[in-house]
From TrEMBL:
Compositional bias of kind Low complexity: 281-300
Biased composition regions of type Pro residues, renumbered to the chain: 269-280
Disordered: region residues: 257-323
InterPro entries: ExeA_AAA_ATPase_DNA-bind (IPR052026), P-loop_NTPase (IPR027417)
Protein name per UniProt: Uncharacterized protein
Residue ranges, compositional bias (Basic and acidic residues): 301-312
Domain of life: Bacteria
Organism: Muricoccus pecuniae
Length: 426
């Protein structure tokens, strides 16, 4: 994979929801910036923004792009890394460029233990807060997915804390897993209790096979980008030997060589700018102040300037707590807002965990002043709910409310609940 990236190939990272794709891209961004490279990390709404040939483009949730957008992104040149779900791997690998694929595998039971121990140590908690049987239960119920594992750890610790237990046992994990899957079992949790505790997904340093690769990647990419710049943005000749991808990478068909860039016309000659004649010798002039340039001769200040436009609200990923007022039940919530088209259209990926579980995607609008509205169908537990979301993005905060409407049996009235959320930019 590293050799493929250094050669300028398209890299595709494939993993299930919660496998750690976003975490990997963020860690990769930090590594590349530390190596002095320009990096653009964003979602599908940012993928169409132009970047320079010396910028590494990291695109999360690239499976949300249509085929035309994926093809355009692949042919744009430069170094690009896409993160997709398994069902979109075929589309990415079918692009007409050389492509390398890497799959994020679930954590083994041993790695789950390392995951929990490392996270507790970073949070300043005892490394043996979870019993051995509890760790085994975490590995079983989370299926080795870091995102699910983190949510299950938070819910298990919350149960143990409410009971006053000195250690999280297997019973706490089993009950938390049942609650997460059903959406129930979190009665009488206050909004304060629902706030997520300090159990963030640790950086993937524990994956020993990945750490050396991330450390070496900035150097290889520097060489790749320097080579790209020196070649004038042209790909290597078709007869040039390409490196083979290490085990775990798969190559897509090779695209025909792209046409060399069209030569640009010589710059137009610079025309002299007329200036006013110097004032008469007897005119009183103040000598120019040192360090300040004199204004142009034809400069005239305007009577008034237009007020600057307020800065537009930025989409992104927000994480925090949610509280269902109707059910008096709380939990964690993660909303990922990405632009999905022209004007103010956005997509909102909804992920509730830790007491209230639900997932899905909503479509809506984000105005320039931060007003967010979105609607669609979510799966809450095993039941579909029509969902209406309203919120406000202000700086790094997203607050608002959400209404869940469950369809009833024929002839009966549909039931609904309402909740609030308070999130911070992730």
């Amino acid at each position: 994979m590293l050799e493929a990236l250094a050669a300028g190939w398209l890299a595709v990272v494939v993993g299930e929801e919660g496998a750690g794709k976003t975490l990997l891209l963020r860690d990769l961004e930090r590594q590349l910036r530390a190596g002095g490279l320009k990096v653009r990390l964003g979602g599908p709404g940012d993928a169409i923004d132009p970047v320079g040939p010396d910028t590494v483009r990291l695109v999360d949730d690239a499976d949300m792009l249509d085929d035309a957008a994926l093809r355009s992104l692949a042919l744009a040149g430069g170094v690009t890394v896409l993160a997709v779900l398994p069902q979109s791997a075929g589309r990415a690998m079918g692009l007409p460029v050389r492509t390398a694929l890497a799959r994020l595998l679930p954590l083994t039971p041993e790695e789950v233990g390392e995951f929990v121990s490392a996270t507790l140590t970073v949070a300043g908690r005892p490394a043996d807060l979870f019993s051995e049987r509890a760790v085994a239960a975490l590995a079983s119920f989370s299926e080795g997915l870091p995102g699910s594992l983190s949510a299950l750890c938070q819910a298990s610790m919350l149960r143990a804390r409410r009971e006053g237990a000195p250690q999280v046992g297997a019973r706490h994990v089993v009950l938390a897993a049942q609650a997460l899957r059903s959406g129930g079992g979190a009665e009488n949790i206050t909004e304060e209790d629902a706030a997520p505790r300090a159990f963030a997904v640790p950086r993937p340093d524990m994956r020993r096979w990945l750490r050396p690769a991330l450390l070496a990647l900035p150097v290889l990419l520097v060489l790749a980008l320097l080579g790209w710049s020196l070649s004038g943005g042209r790909p290597p000749a078709s007869g040039e030997e390409r490196p083979a991808v290490a085990a775990g990478g798969v190559l897509a068909p090779v695209a025909p060589p792209r046409e060399p860039p069209v030569a640009t016309a010589p710059a137009a000659p610079v025309r002299p700018v007329p200036v006013r004649p110097a004032p008469a010798p007897d005119a009183a002039l103040d000598p120019p102040r040192a360090g300040r340039a004199s204004p142009p001769a034809d400069f005239a200040p305007r009577a008034e300037r237009a007020a600057p436009r307020p800065e537009a609200a930025e989409p992104g990923t927000f994480r925090g707590s949610t509280f269902n007022v109707t059910l008096a039940r709380g939990g964690g919530l993660r909303l990922t807002v990405t632009r999905s088209g022209p004007a103010d259209a956005v997509m909102v990926r909804f992920q509730a965990y830790g007491g209230l579980i639900g997932a899905g995607q909503l479509a809506g609008r984000l105005t320039r002043d931060g007003q967010l509205t979105a609607s669609g169908t979510l799966m809450m537990g095993q039941n579909p709910f029509t969902t209406e979301l309203e919120g406000t993005i202000s700086g790094d905060r997203l607050t608002g409310s959400v209404r869940y409407i469950r369809a009833a049996a024929p002839g009966a009235q549909p039931s609904s609940t309402r909740g609030t959320f308070r999130l911070a930019r992730d």
